[in-house]
Structure formats: C-alpha cells, structure tokens
Amino acid sequence: MAPAKNKVVIVGVNDLAADLVLALAERGRSVAQPPVVVGAGTGVRREHRVRLLDRGAVRELAAMLARLEPTVVVQLAVSESAVRPRRHGRYDSVIAETVAGALRLWHQRGGRLRDLIVLSSTVVYGVARSSPLLFSESSDGQGAAELGVETRYGRWAAELRRAERTYRDLAADLRAGLTLLRAAPVVGGPIASPVTELLGARLGVRVAGYDPPVQVTHYSDLIEALALAVDQRPRETLNIASRGVVPLSRLGALAGRVLLPVPRVAAALMLPEGLTAAALAGRCVADDRRAAQVLGFMPVFSAEEAVLG
Questions:
Q1: Class of domain 6-308 (CATH, top level)
Q2: The whole model's pTM is what?
Q3: What is the pLDDT of residue 48?
Q4: Where are the domains of the chain?
C-alpha cells in the first residue's frame, strides 16, 4: 500500500508561498493546499487570506486550520529584511505568537499537527570579525553583539531569534516535529533581502578597510530546499545557501555597481534604511554542509551565479 500523502498548509507573506505550492504539486508527494496569505495576495487561485497582525487573528487562523486539517504547516510569513514588509514595531515575533496561538487553539479542539517547518534567516547569527569562520546551526546569536540592539538591523535579528524560540516552545508543547531552515539573504527572485537592498540603493557604499565574504541563496535554490524539507521533514535546524561566497566588492561588480569604500561613520549615514555598517564590517557565513547530508540539498547556483540572476 502506498504511504498516505501529507496534507500541507503554507502560511506566507509573498510570492514564495505560491511558488512552493507549485513546486510541491510538481513533485506529487504532498497535497499542498492554496496558501494562507498574510496581507497582499499572491495570485494563486482560492488562496486563503488572513491578517495575522490584527486582533482576532488567532481564532481566525485556528478556524481555518480546523477546516483544512493539515498534517504539515509550513511557516513562510517572515520579514524579507529589517524594513520589508513595512511595519511599526514588532513583526516577526508577533507573527510567531499568532501562529503559535492558533496552532495551540486548534490542538485543544482536536487538531493534530505532525510537523512544523519554519523559514528563518542566517541573520540570527549576527556577524563575526575573527572567529568563527563559519556559523554552525548551534551558533545561535553568537555574533549578535556586533550588530548592536540600537540599530534597526540588530533589532530585526533579535526578533527573528525570538520568533525561533516561540516555534521551538510550540513544537515541544504539541509534541510535533520542528524543522527550522535558516536561509542566507535571498537574491534572484521576486522577494527582497538586505543584499538586494544594498545593491539597489541610490548610493552604493561599503565600509573602508573591509571586504567581507557574502553568502546568498538564489530564490530557486530556496524553493528546492523548502520542498525537500516538506518531503523529508528532518526535524532539525539547517542552514541553506547557494554554493560558496563572494567578496562584497565583487558582489557589487557582478551587479553592475561600484560599492565605494567610505569611513564607517559615513557609511552609517549613507547606507539604505535598515542596513547597518556593522553588518558590512564583519562576515555572516553559515556552514551549510548539514543540509546536503540530511536533505540531499545540492544548490544549483553558486553565489556569483545567484547574484547574476
């Protein structure tokens, strides 16, 4: 007898949710429902709309889960950068609290979740100036102090870490499996990231004296990693990135931009909103070998190819 297919519900905030639905449909090993979309629509037919930042969102999402009865929930409703989507105050931690509250309420009413798959970011690691050379999955917040809590970028990283803790507590309470994918900044697709914001800025600058290696994830590689995670549900934290790294100056050249080296104080004033000079004066490179070992994830794009699109 063939194994039963997993019924998957994807919660998203941008085109990534719709594209993952299509990728899962092509594989045919999971029954992916039209996505639950936060805010603006994705264009997928019959998508479910919910406002996770509004009052009453917990009950609304719990009722939606009761109708859909998923075995797997994929949480992609995560901010793209420190400023996108636009918001006032907390965002990622509020989304996490709402999703967790809805799943707990659904569980109390008889719902049974087997697996929760959550997209996060390597931004949670902060940056390193000396060691470690690579952040492993166990390096939670090891370089966070370098970013500073007074910057918007630093607060964003702290929010993502807080959201991760919420999902860990939820999975433990519900006795569900948790797969956490930390992706390097995304390029080559319809969503933004700190890298795309830097390359798209009116003034291209970097911090003089620093040319750190930059790690990115091509949009197509990210979709592949997510689809593999849904198929295999490894129930652990994994770093996701395209192959290799590229020096920051080379990154700009590949994108047709000259990133002018300027003093750190000047860079802080000239960088796009949401970016911080500290993030460009250190490296954030994650060890992504575990994803290959566990998922068989083999990125198609190198870092340079990803930037070229």
A1: alpha beta
A2: 0.94
A3: 78
A4: 6-308
